[in-house]
Protein 1
Amino acid sequence: MPADDRPLRADAQRNRAALVAAAREVMGRRGLDAPLDVIASVAGLGNATLYRHFPIRRDLVQAVFADQMARYAAAVERALEESDPWAAVRGYLMEISALQAENRALADLVTSAEYTDETRPVAVAHLHALLDRARAAGRLRADFVVEDVVLLLLANAGVIRRTAEHAPAASSRLVALLLDGLAAEAATPGPPPPDPAGIARALSGTGTTPPIEEREP
């Protein structure tokens, strides 16, 4: 929608829809850093048209993946409704890892602080509650924290990037092995959990996604 909130003309609406569809397809294969000129080409439009609708990459990403990000928030809400604390944690981690495997861009998006929306703070608060409940029940290893979920998702995203085309079952195999180590009865002494501030810095553009692109109008 233009800055003055006037409705788009019919041709502009078609162009915007074509760009979003192209971005969904290209980013799904190549990740969030897919070249914007490739997206414009797939949409059958020029770069100027793309930047007119989406001045920065963040705008395009949010237009493409808002619905998918809501699926991550819904997953933790469903997990909190599960009566068994361990089944809830296990089911949640399996579900969001599977969502990552569906789409390379989503695999990057869920572990990126560059691209966020209003659903993320609520989802993180619910995740704290989910883990607190499982630890209090003695089912989840006592030192497993939200930052460890981020590590799991980062590992899964890396596996997806390297194996999606040739060994698509690798992601689910990794997650199954990692989950076996999270049960309280399987826990062994290990290093302390990662520092939250350090994890936040790691997700702020240092390897998961490129810096957000700006373009002069």
Note: DSSP finds ten helices and no strands in the chain.
Protein 2
Amino acid sequence: MEIPSNPYVASTDALEQASFFPRVYGWMAVGLLVSAAAAFALLGSPQALKFVYGSRFVFFGLILGELGLVFYLSARVMSMSSAAAKGAFVAFAALNGITLASIFLVYTAGSIASTFVVSAATFGATSAYGMVTKRDLSGFGSFVVMGLFGIVIASVVNLFLKNEAVYWITTYIGVFVFIGLTAYDTWKLKKISVSATGEAAGNLAILGALTLYLDFVNLFLMLLRLFGKRR
């Protein structure tokens, strides 16, 4: 005779599944708020601003710290405690806010705000598509990931070439790449979240928040290149 499943366990798993994406988007929102707070705190202190942007060693050290946290979280988040995963994500968001504060020195506040709204609307629609679509996006995901690598390589090379055409080509392609990555990453999270429960689901939500945070911020920066008004 087949043993019936425990209805309490089944309902608990169902609740965890239902709360997964709210947790992802909630932590992503926390990350954006932390980044904004860190950026405004830096801008409000001329001494701190000079310390960060007056030294290439400090600035690039912060960027390397960000990259280190991203790689560390991506590789180890599922084996970390919930508190450690959340702490690492918040630390990354704060560091990213400090390095992104420079956009307020380059672009007007109004254009930053309007571009943020456009980015949020685009991100929301694309992420919603990734969540509800019945299509298999794995092949599409491989395509946009290749595009991402291409943008990174071209951007690094252009740091030395300083070619304006390459700058604008990578910008336009970047918009489409990060729109595609938003849909793909949301779809992928939906697929892998089915088997995650308990603390694993919580840590996966942090990883999802980090992934979508990066998609959103990079989409915002690409759109800011197009629509931002320089001071």
Note: Residues 18-227 form one domain.
Protein 3
Amino acid sequence: MKPLAVITGVGPGTGSALVRRFHAGGYRVAMLARTADRLAELEREAPGAFAVPCDVTDANMLGGALARIEQEAGSPKVLIHNAVGGAFGSFLDIDPAVLERNFQVNVMALLHLARWATPSMEAAGEGALIVTGNTSALRGRARFAGFAPTKAAQRILAESIAREMGPKGVHVAFLMIDAVIDLAWTRARYPEQPDDFFIKPADIADEAWHLAHQPRSAWSFLTEVRPFKETW
């Protein structure tokens, strides 16, 4: 029986690349996104992967989705929280409701996912919970007030879970992406930039795979990835 990987935020970039990488590595993949339409092609491309339409900000909907996954495919060996809520603007201008929604996506959904997945991982004596993040988890830049506080809270929550679950055999890691991800809309936004300005979704997925399969003697918590020309 194939091990199960559960991936949230399966969009056209990192999420899809994660699905492809874990499917290629022999996993059955449960794919969470708000609409099933974007997942239909991936279901055809990766036989055995299955779509689970879900808005992770809705705790009841998320709970139902996770129950369906468990009924259909069992407990996960790997869970990757890739869904992200973001917004940009001055703290004076943003709608406070936007910050609250982003907190639901980035922090509360992680809490619900971890509470669901880690008990079975602990019982199995193994498992990995990976969160994809970015440098907003470490700094609050101007016009990031609707986003950075939630990513910082997400990192701290992940660290708290890691410290509790690591000694129980569950590896929790925060994969920080310090780059512009190579997508159609980012290419359109930065048409003057060369290929090596962007980080490739497939390369992010390879690093997530590596984190999920690190030997116990050398577990990472905070891992950073960036193109070789990135200023940091």
Note: The beta strands are 4-7, 28-33, 50-53, 78-81, 128-134, 171-177, 180-181, 198-199, 222-225.
Protein 4
Amino acid sequence: MQKSLTDFEQLHPRSFKGTQAEAQQTQDAMAKAAESLQKKGNDARTSTQAATQQMEKLSEAMKNDTTGQQLADAYKMKQMLDNQIKTLGQCANPGPGGGVSDAEVDRTAGEARETLNQLKKVAEQEPTRDAFGPPLRAALSGTNKTELDSKLARVQLAQDQPARQQRAGEAKEALSKVSKAFEDSEPKAMQMAQKTDSLKQGEQESFNQGISELESLLKQLEDNRQMSPGKQGKQGREALGNLKNGMRALYGDTERGTQLLLKLDQMLNDEKALDANDLKSLISELQHFSVETADLMSRREDKPEVTNIDPTRLPPAYRGRITKYFQRLSEK
């Protein structure tokens, strides 16, 4: 079984992306169980049970990682839909500089139809179905989906500019309702996160605050302090809101960033109590994401001021190390 798992991981590395730690722990547990069985040790039964439990944890981790990937793809499609709405709007109401070309409008209408097909799968098929509420399913079901496809087809069939503009406007309005349905169907914690922008904190301050709130929650879990589910959930949602505001303002809607936010959202919505090890691992992933993304963005910028980056824009735990890194760059 251990060899089969190793071979499978080598053949399908993508399936284990994000679960390497669990995979390694499973390999170690299986190796220990195999050794105990070969030596007929007294701990053979215990080791075998531990290996079985570790395999179950790996299976669950891979399932959660797959769900997170699909949810991240859903948010990417939502962004694509909003861009398509914008293009159709430019066709319907061209500005002083003119509208978009007929070819671009036709292409956008075709791409929007495919985006709707993918969002329909998100709304109706497992595992993402359970993550989203009824509004998105209703917006893309039955006659509603047929009507959307018809409006997009009519844009492509328009024979003159006035008809094209009118039909593009109609399609834009119809797609806007789908976009709104997506937002209304989002996981509750993600909806609440969008409402926490009232204080208008600085982007890095917001990210740092979110990390601090998670670290505080982790410390309480490690100290075995009694926390009511309501208090635990409230603190977690506040952290999620701050992280979402900070990460998207600093780094945009990256796939990895969205996955991490959704992973926290799933942890908060899980019926089981928060696990200290899982939360600790997520905090580490968030901090590494921030450092690596800041580094990547700085290398894309070919500007002198990059070497004078403000250290307050980095997570507290990494400021010293990253500041020294940029200082060395400036000396080259």
Note: Confidence is low (pLDDT under 50) at residues 11-19, 195-201, 301-311.
